[in-house]
Amino acid sequence: MPAVQATDAGLLCYCRAGFEPELAAELTQRAAEAGVAGHARTQRGSGHVVFAVADSDGPGDAGAAAAALSQALPWRELIFARQKLVLLAELRDIDPRDRIAPILDRLQGLPAFGELWVEHPDTDAGKPLAGLARSFGNALRPALRKAGLLSAREDARRVRLHVFLLEGNHLLLAAGDPGDSAPWPLGIPRLRMHAEAPSRSALKLEEALLVLLDGDERARLLQPGMRAADLGAAPGGWSWVLARQGLQVTAIDNGPLRQHLLDSGRVEHLRADGFAWQPARALDWMVCDMVEQPRRVAERMATWLREGWCRHAIFNLKLPMKKRWQETQAALEAFVEQAQQPLALRARQLYHDREEITVFASVLRNRDRPRGDRS
């Protein structure tokens, strides 16, 4: 990461609107555990959180602390953050007639960035800024290149420059490490609803496979012929995603599935209770999107891994309206404790999630420990 020369050093993280308190609590706790002093700044509904590090010994010290905090909080391990960036500066009361000059001034002395992303909050208040973000990006790129602050051609291997527009005269400058940040603008993978998908819930599992697994893991862990169970499957969105990957799926639900899914030959439907059913032999995968108390779901998912009924799992935990960060921690801790297995564990509130988080868990073997996990 480039050295931070601004007094506004810290982290900038994007999140789902309304979940700023949960992200702020997560960052505050994780920073304390990493031994970095600071505080979270946010506003409910803003779609982002700034975690400002303490500046007791000057801006250079704050910049070093921000870089250390970023390293201690890998993007893959954060639950409520869609995106994680190192904050470089906050610019207020900019003259709309010349937004470029103050940006160039604050970036002087930094190495050239590989890409420029001009973004805005993913909120009702932020979406009207989309047009300004596009036009301003087109004007800012050549100015950055002329100043030697942006590579002549886009280089995805270099640190990205993010300009986060809060208003027409108020913006944040941040840096994104391509190896430790979301590779999509606003941290949102753009997925399209397939015409044959039985329900929109299919987008949740598609996003989970894209965000919670890397490319190597998807190729290794999702191979044609593998066997999976989908608990609470109706109307079949998650079963459809797995079948498209070539897996043989047992769909467990007392409700009906879409007929074309059954006609595929890759999905068997059993009318049973997803909380009571267990497979006759071990499966490769189990997925679950049942509506139930998060700790009850966590306990049942732990049973599957503890008993060896599956090796990999993706499941959703529906969160309460209050104390969502605390409930998230309690459910995940209960899951790990009761699984009684060495696990790779990743959890994220996905773009297609609502009042829930999605969890990937995998029983570890010595030769295939996934990277970027919370074991």
Task: Report on the architecture of this protein.
The chain is an alpha/beta fold and 375 residues long. The protein has 2 domains: 10-187, THUMP fold (2-Layer Sandwich); 201-363, Rossmann fold (3-Layer(aba) Sandwich). It contains 10 helices and 14 strands. Strands 2-3-1-4-7-6-5 form a 7-stranded mixed sheet. Helix 9 packs parallel to helix 10. It starts with 9 loop residues before the first strand and ends in a 12-residue tail after the last strand. Residues 1-7 have low confidence and may be disordered.
List the helices and strands and how they pair.
Elements: E1 10-14, H1 20-33, E2 38-42, E3 48-53, H2 59-72, E4 83-91, H3 100-107, E5 115-119, H4 130-146, E6 160-167, E7 170-176, H5 201-212, H6 215-221, E8 227-231, H7 237-244, E9 248-252, H8 259-263, E10 267-270, E11 285-288, H9 294-306, E12 312-318, H10 324-339, E13 343-348, E14 356-363
Parallel strand pairs: 5-6, 8-9, 8-11, 9-10, 11-12
Antiparallel strand pairs: 1-3, 1-4, 2-3, 4-7, 6-7, 12-14, 13-14
Using only C-alpha atoms, the radius of gyration works out to 22 Å
Query: What number is the mean pLDDT?
Result: 92
Order of helices and strands: EHEEHEHEHEEHHEHEHEEHEHEE
For the record, the count of structural domains works out to: 2
- Which sequence of strands runs across the widest sheet? 2-3-1-4-7-6-5
Assign the CATH architecture of the largest domain: 2-Layer Sandwich
